[in-house]
Amino acid sequence: MIDIRNATKIFKTKNNDIQAVDDVTLHIRQGEIFGVIGYSGAGKSTLIRMLNGLEQPSSGEVVIGADVISTMNRTKLRKKRQKVSMIFQHFNLLWSRTVAENISFPLEIAGVPKKDQKRRVAELIELVGLTGREDNYPSQLSGGQKQRVGIARALSNEPEVLLCDEATSALDPETTDEVLDLLVRIRDEMDLTIVLITHEMHVIRKICDRAAVMEGGRVVETGPVLKLFQNP
Ligand code: ADP
Ligand code: ADP
Fold it and tell me: What is the ipTM, given to two decimal places?
């Protein structure tokens, strides 16, 4: 479903070239929860950003479903991004908009009729457990609730892939577990493929089917989580 083939990303800066991702090849299956773990600077963000075209590889190829992301033009990419959505460590909500308005935002951009927007937002609010919070502003919500809004917004256009960029790193352990449980439920109900990056082993162990370990831009290990991280 997702094929990353010999992807390399080099950032050219004034003083030197930084090889953020170095010849990474990964195959991620439909319906899988796939984790990428590594220390800060390992290249995780750059890798995940290549999956929705926020970064283009310097060489190599990124394929999602039938689409070669790494060679798509802007117009096509904008369309594809509705199907490859993302949630973030710091939620990236619009602070002047209510919960319902945040969730409907991608639908507005996609030109979905108002009536359909309303119906979809109501479904999503229920799915993520935010009933009664529709008219709150993000500042009135806890961290876990903010991430639920982020998840609902990411799901609004019925994506094929959900990318999670350190999505629980700003949350306490209990809230982290609640959000992770929600991600598993969504994967099960919607047959979504989830790719997450994290520096937390707990996240990988709790919900990932398979994982890759990144170091210095390279994938140094990959396999089923049970095998990769089994206790000796
Ligand atoms: P991680 O997400 O694992 O912390 P990143 O992908 O953010 O790793 O970064 C990998 C390396 O690439 C780091 O050395 C980082 O400083 C560098 N890097 C990331 N983005 C850029 C950029 N836009 N310009 C220059 N260097 C970058
Ligand atoms: P995150 O918390 O997601 O890892 P960062 O603070 O590492 O975010 O990076 C924020 C943004 O800055 C990203 O778009 C990343 O590509 C860019 N960036 C990271 N490192 C560098 C760098 N050394 N030079 C320029 N841009 C960078």
Answer: 0.74
